[in-house]
Amino acid sequence: MGKLLIVGTVAFDAIETPFGKTDKILGGAATFIGLAASQFKLDSGLISVVGGDFPQEYLQMLSERNIDISGVEVIKEGKTFFWSGKYDYNLNTRETLATDLNVLADFNPIVPENYIDCDFLMLGNLHPSVQMSVINQIPKRPKLVVLDTMNFWMDNTMDELMEVLPKIDVITINDEEARQLSGEYSLVKAAQKIHKMGPQYVVIKKGENGALLFNNGDVFFAPALPLEEIFDPTGAGDTFAGGFIGYLASTHDVSFENMKRAVIYGSNFASFCVERFGTERMIDLDQEEIQKRLGQFKQLTQFEIELTH
Ligand code: AMP
């Protein structure tokens, strides 16, 4: 069984979209990644930090989904990371209203002993020095290291981010972030520049416009499924990443061909995530729905058409 270690935020989010507004609800990159990855037969463990204000029932919920939470530190006198964001009708762009690092500000991740030999490592969106610290605690290089990041860290910690990029295999970012990181508008040129920073594979997520996978010259595209219900895109990127690495870890195959399948699995999970606020949809997702929607994905993209004459 693949052993997957996930590091990232476990958080409170407050979200506003044209379709509604929430108070503090469960969020965080690692939460979404873990929930998606938990749909595969894997040994997955999570490293994060929360405050004394974090409900035990949320941790229990993750644990019940076979996610090992022994690496989630609880700082009783501290407050949990809080993020708040607002979307308008273009759900592909959002405004961050608040990022309160709280306990995350002094987070010193410790890799639990039983995950030191993990073969898949998912570095969720976090301070790049924290991501680096996790890499440094794992003596034997995992089969695959995937990193996700965002504009917040590019704005504030670009130098540290540039030091981590040579140590990873795959970066997953959205189109705006790819442009910010590379200084290129064309996503093809952006991917070329990002390859040079380290990662062999570059995944660029374009929200409802699908996702691109670049491998030095080769490119694969998967559309997003056109959906009837879209409530809240928060966590879609992390859910994509969790589905992507979860599939690769469960199949133990990191070839480019298999990564194409992983992109489809990731997109499939993300399509569920956006149907409700926060983690709501991911929590009650079942295998039957997942398989059915994979079939819809196949239908959507499979065509036999004569293009030459
Ligand atoms: P996504 O929509 O996939 O980009 O991720 C949304 C999640 O990322 C939310 O649940 C937030 O709690 C979390 N998040 C937002 N800002 C940050 C940040 N600067 N660092 C780490 N996690 C963040």
Average pLDDT works out at 95
Largest sheet: 9 strands, mixed
The H-level CATH homologous superfamily, spelled out, is Ribokinase
Specify the CATH architecture. 3-Layer(aba) Sandwich
The ordered string of helix (H) and strand (E) elements is EEEEHEHEEEEHEHHEHHEEEHHHH
For the record, the CATH class is: Alpha Beta
Question: Strands of the biggest beta sheet: in what spatial order?
Answer: 6-5-1-9-10-11-12-13-14
Task: Please identify the structural class as seen in this structure.
Answer: alpha/beta
Rounded Rg: 18 Å
Stretches with pLDDT under 50, minimum 5 residues: none
Tell me how many strands there are.
Answer: 14
CATH topology label: UDP-N-acetylmuramoyl-L-alanine:D-glutamate ligase
Shape from CA axes? globular
**Relative helix content:** 25-40%
Total helical segments: 11
Number of domains: 1
Proportion of strand residues: 15-25%
